[in-house]
Specification:
3-stranded antiparallel beta sheet; 40% helix; globular; alpha+beta; 11 helices
């Protein structure tokens, strides 16, 4: 994030504050703890648009009754390695982290497990959940879409039909895991909203206006413009294809989606975990991923690039630094939480 308006906080202090404010808002204890933990995890890794920047919105969702405060997901189907939940608009951080944990438990028995979740609340940063699995030596994939959102147009079109549809993959290696977190659009709605608030434009034309023309102005989203698919106008069929897969992988498998006319903040999420021991073996898996990681890192860099990095490498380095020296938050983030904290009787950190 950077900048003179950033303030550093001790991570434990921030986590305790976030946990206290979500509990005071009415979330059950383990749900408040999960939302606090995974929002802060995003900030620790540098995913600042999907960290505590979301907390004010989440608190308003709780107050408005959009995010459900208590209870369990309804088990729609459970065949051991294949599970479907109706998420009942429970906190997305809690549902997603619980799904990854359960998928790991089932993968230990079945080799792999898939959990599809319908009607979750917003789940934040997908990368924040990956190490739940990679710390156990498992490979994991997470995908998410929002059936009520429509900010990305199909390639060749100009009217939004679906959302950025992010996917994340955690791949164990002999060292740090590879942590991939990408979306089917070039940028996100949260980033566009941040730029609007700051009066800034994108450095590149990553949006289309309502007429289908390239644009750098984030305000076009407010008047019917859309986010460009990955590949832009040149190779946007790639992002288009990725988005269609995520729609089917999440809403199709969970059985609830756009065709059902859902309103308000919601997400469809699918989690998939693989135990390498059930396939070619863990040692063989790590031998392959270790070679790949080394080959990428040792690749000669192109002009202007210091060295080749692996996905997630910067995020893990930022996390180690933040744990040692404090996490930097823009002053606007804490300012946005002050009124909620006062309303709920929780002292600001």
């Amino acid at each position: 994030m950077g900048g003179t308006s950033d303030i550093r906080y001790a991570p434990d202090r921030l986590r305790q504050f976030a946990r206290a404010v979500f509990a005071a808002a009415g979330l059950e204890e383990e749900k408040a703890a999960a939302v606090a933990h995974y929002l802060l995890e995003a900030d620790l890794m540098g995913h600042t648009t999907h960290g505590l920047a979301l907390a004010g919105w989440y608190l308003q969702s709780i107050a408005d009754g959009v995010m459900k405060r208590e209870g369990l997901p309804e088990v729609v189907s459970d065949r051991g390695p294949a599970i479907a939940w109706q998420g009942q608009r429970l906190p997305g951080a809690w549902l997603t982290s619980e799904a990854v944990k359960l998928a790991c438990e089932r993968a230990a028995t079945y080799g792999t497990a898939t959990i599809a979740i319908a009607d979750s609340h917003h789940i934040g940063c997908l990368a924040a959940y990956l190490t739940i699995a990679t710390d156990r030596g498992y490979m994991v994939s997470i995908a998410s879409s929002s059936p009520s959102g429509a900010q990305v147009a199909p390639f060749g079109g100009r009217k939004g039909i679906y959302t950025p549809n992010p996917v994340a993959h955690g791949i164990p290696t002999p060292g740090d895991p590879i942590l991939i977190d990408i979306s089917a659009s070039i940028t996100t709605v949260n980033m566009a909203q941040r730029l609007v608030r700051e009066g800034r434009q994108y450095d590149h034309a990553w949006l289309m206006d309502e007429n289908g023309e390239p644009s750098r102005d984030p305000r076009v989203i407010e008047r019917g413009g859309t986010l460009m698919p990955v590949g832009g106008l040149d190779h946007g069929q790639k992002g288009y294809g990725m988005a269609l897969h995520v729609e089917a992988f999440t809403q199709g498998l969970s059985g609830l989606g756009r065709v059902d006319g859902l309103k308000g903040t919601n997400a469809a999420v699918t989690v998939q975990v693989f135990d390498p021991d059930a396939f070619g073996g863990r040692d063989a898996f790590l031998r392959q991923t270790g070679w790949l990681a080394d080959a990428c890192r040792s690749n000669p860099p192109r002009p202007g690039v210091a060295r080749v990095r692996l996905p997630g490498e910067n995020g893990l380095a930022r996390k180690r630094s933040a744990l040692a020296d404090g996490v930097a938050l823009h002053s606007n983030i804490m300012a946005s939480l002050a009124s909620h904290a006062e309303r709920l009787g929780v002292a600001m950190p």
